[in-house]
Write a structure and sequence with these properties.
Length: about 375
Amino acid sequence: MACKPCAVLLLLAHAAALQPPSWSALSKTLPSAARDEPTIIDAVNHRQKRPPLSEDTVVLYRERNGWCPYSERVWLGLETKNVAYETVLIDNTGGARPSWFESTTPRIRWADGTDQGESLDILKDLDERYPSEPPLFDEHSAALIGAFKEIFPRMTRPSSRAAFLFRSSGQPVARRDFEATLEKTDALLGERGGPFFAGASPTAPDVCWAPFLERYAAQLPLLHDGLRPRDTTRYPNLSRWYDAMESTIPAYGCRVRGNAASWAKVLSQTGFGNGGSVPETNPDDRTAASDAAASARGAETWAAYAADRPWVAPSPDEEAAATILRRRDAIRDDAVRRGVGDADTIEAGLRGVVAGLIDEAHVLALD
């Protein structure tokens, strides 16, 4: 059964008075939901006291909303290496920041208890502590990572939501400057044959550049009409890099990559990056289409991502179903508090959603 928006499935389940399968029957089809998943703690719920964490496991402290590109660097590095780690989400917007966390994000507490900051330093140490073949860093990495500072626009306002987009005045970087950045990036990607910065295999430069290029793909067309980093004619090497990141690195395409809708939304928010002035944006349907294709490429690598992660379901739809299954009590209680309906109706609706996300025929056969 094709995946449908949860709200639609809830309405259908209620309107048609369906009798969805029991939680027990649904659980039998989703063994991953019964496995322990890596701990993710939202520090908003632990503002005064540090939450309990495993003493011998890596802990990543990253920005709560997924906006920080430097947090994404470290997150992608950990996922690419498939290192076991726990996550603590830190609110950097001000009011909900925990009193016990006085550092910046990202930050790592290694399994031996040592603490480290700065995304690039963390990635280097990660490669040394968890050797892999091929390694993240090779003889080209330093120069390729260093080129970022030379290529991306200078004298821009620092911002997690709007990195390298706005001048000190709060106005967007000029189109010609963005075009120069994209042209130089495209040329750099072509120097070693691609599709990645160092050649045929992804390395640390791809991890370091990815968060920023990901945001540019969604945000530049909104700031300057027709300026598309994924343009296969103007930036063929860069377009090829995007495709390769999404289709050959399961951890990126399936887990870490943000979506165009989110990056478009943050442009509409007043913040430090834009100097408190929300920019005018241009509608761009082509970016949405490209983002949908990127999601599809990521879904094709899902089996590879899930293969050595037993808590991950074998498909994206089943993963969404397993997430609802794990969190059904919290979702139900929150919906009741918001006046969506009574507990029994919401329970039935949630079971209908889960049944719609997995192989319905198989589920019904179990009941």
